[in-house]
Amino acid sequence: MFEVIFFSLIVVAGTGGELCVSRAMKEVGEVHDFRPLAVLKVIRQAVCVKWMWIGVGLMTLGFFSLLAMLSLENVSFVVPVTALGYVAGALGGRFFLGERVNWRRWAGIFLVCVGVTLVVVGKG
Fold this sequence. Notes:
The protein is mainly α. It has one domain. It contains six helices and no strands. α1 (2-28) runs antiparallel to α3, α1 crosses α5 (84-95) and α5 (84-95) packs antiparallel against α6. The relative contact order is 0.16.
C-alpha cells in the first residue's frame, strides 16, 4: 500500500514540480546573457515567481518519496516504474503548459508504458 502512495508521489509530485518550474521560467523569460551579474538577475527574478516555489516544494516531496521507495524496493524495479513521469510530463506539458505533443512523442510514451508494465508484471 505504501508503495503505491510513494510511487504516486514520485510521479505526480516530481513531475508536477518540474512543470511548475518550467512555468516559472517561461514567466522569467529566456536567458541570453550568461555573465555572472546577468545570471544573478535571472535567479532573483525566478525566486520571485510563485510557481518556482511550488515547483521546488513538489520536487522535494517527489525526491523524498523516491528515497523512501529505494529503501523498500530494488533500484531495478523503482527506476523503471518512475518512468511513468514521462507520461505525466507529456500530459502536463499539453494541458498545464499548452504545449503541442505530436504523435511520435505519444508513440514513444506508449512504449514507455509498455516497458513499465513489463517491469511491474515481471516483479510478481
